[in-house]
Design brief:
62% helix; 8 helices; 3% strand; mainly alpha; two-stranded antiparallel sheet
Length: 239
């Protein structure tokens, strides 16, 4: 029998890179769509069919990865249903009203690919009744860093895996009791988290704001960019 395992940080990073490759092709195809069509209705109509294969690929790859962590476990890994067509149409309609429609729709495409990956892991973790962690890249925004410091404490809390534009975080399950070991750089984030919590208390928004100010002290443009990311993530979580 092949025992279940917890992937190393390198293996998790490799899986993240795989999803990022799917997302990058989706972004290229989305950009090409906007450059080849000028009619708004035609773009909105074509977008769901264009993004569907990449959403399906992200879900299938994530289900296979989930299964590989405990290949002999008596648990049937499933790919969750794709997002409704109306949701994808709404993304396209919204993007075409923005100052940079191509950038907005490309960002939505990338976000949808990573969201599908995270949702696949979380839905199966919920069904299997195992915990999962948020894995964030070393250059992640402050809010993602906060969530990543909490390690594998999540069960079904959707807010733990909500993403924003340019967010490449993934969900990592703890199958069969194998403890999740985060990357070494998370230790530095945890020190920052604890220092901020000691100063402002236990409310996550307050902790993130304090960490953000420390990170971007004297750099108002970067600080404001971080705030916009956090606002976007909260807005998406409420949709």
């Amino acid at each position: 029998m092949i025992p279940p395992k917890m992937p190393s940080s390198t293996e998790v990073g490799n899986f993240q890179d795989l999803i990022a490759q799917v997302a990058s092709v989706a972004v290229l195809r989305t950009t090409g769509l906007l450059s080849s069509l000028s009619d708004r209705d035609a773009i909105v109509e074509a977008y769901p069919e264009l993004i569907d294969p990449f959403i399906a690929a992200a879900g299938q790859l994530s289900a296979e990865w989930y299964s590989s962590l405990a290949p002999t476990a008596p648990f049937a890994v499933e790919v969750p249903p794709p997002p409704p067509r109306n949701s994808l149409i709404a993304n396209a309609n919204w993007a075409l009203t923005q100052f940079d429609p191509a950038g907005a729709l490309s960002g939505a495409a990338e976000r949808q690919v990573f969201t599908t990956s995270r949702d696949t892991v979380v839905s199966n973790a919920s069904r299997e009744r195992v915990r999962y962690a948020r894995y964030a890249s070393a250059n992640a925004c402050t809010w993602c860093r906060v969530l990543a410091t909490r390690e594998a404490v999540y069960f079904t809390a959707e807010s733990a895996v909500k993403g924003h534009d340019n967010c490449h975080c993934i969900a990592v399950p703890e199958r069969a009791g194998n403890a999740y070991v985060p990357p070494d750089y998370v230790n530095r984030w945890r020190d920052d988290y604890n220092a901020a919590r000691d100063e402002v208390g236990g409310q996550l928004d307050a902790i993130a704001n304090r960490m953000r100010r420390d990170k971007y002290s004297g750099d108002k443009d970067s600080l404001n960019a971080e705030r916009r990311k956090r606002y976007a993530a909260k807005k998406q979580a409420n949709q």
